[in-house]
């Protein structure tokens, strides 16, 4: 599926046409999501590779997308993870977000599907609070947003904490100890829709160029990170950095 459709078809319209005749309805969502992530990532890589200090790899080199001033990096495009936010909320003594939302929904007289998945309940309550648009609902939404922005600000001020978390909390199948350059995309107005920023090249290109233009100001110690991984006896030393792109 990935080889035949996701990586082979560059045109969105061509892909959609295959849904009518070749791709089963049960996997269409997966295929479309994979296609979007694959081609947007390739275009983002191209932004990096177009810069004078970036050397593209010749052929396929495992876990290396390009070299920046002779440092090999594997580019990872991601978002501020929900699990990371949950941990930081707990550290700060904030209530579990979904629990808080359910309590607020009850106070606001908002009904929601209690049997739905947690992510769907979260979405439903947020939408209904926004639709209600009264003083209490707006207070709840602003409070959650402010708390997330606080967590984001701290991550931006000390990115190695987030970088270490990202290395240590990938699943076993995605474990890696290669140098990684994380591109963290955040829509500060709507965290859940941060994925849309992967296609916002008017925002991405100048931010990436600015990072690369100032790369020479960094020292090698700025990139050094040591981390542990569950089930692995030794610690790992890598070179890593995070580019935050926020809207």
Describe the structure.
With 247 residues, this protein is α/β, with parallel strands linked by helices. The chain is 50% helix and 18% strand. The chain is built from 9 helices and 6 strands; from the N terminus they run H-H-H-E-E-E-H-H-H-H-H-E-H-E-E. A 6-stranded mixed β-sheet has the order 1-2-3-4-6-5. The model has no long low-confidence stretch (mean pLDDT 91).
List the defining traits of the structure above.
18% strand; 6 strands; 247 residues; single chain; 9 helices; six-stranded mixed β-sheet; globular; 3 domains; alpha/beta
**What structural class do helix, strand and pairing data support?**
alpha/beta
Q: Could you tell me how far the N terminus lies from the C terminus, measured between alpha carbons in angstroms?
A: 33 Å
Number of discrete domains: 3
Radius of gyration computed on alpha carbons: 20 Å
**pLDDT average, as an integer?**
91
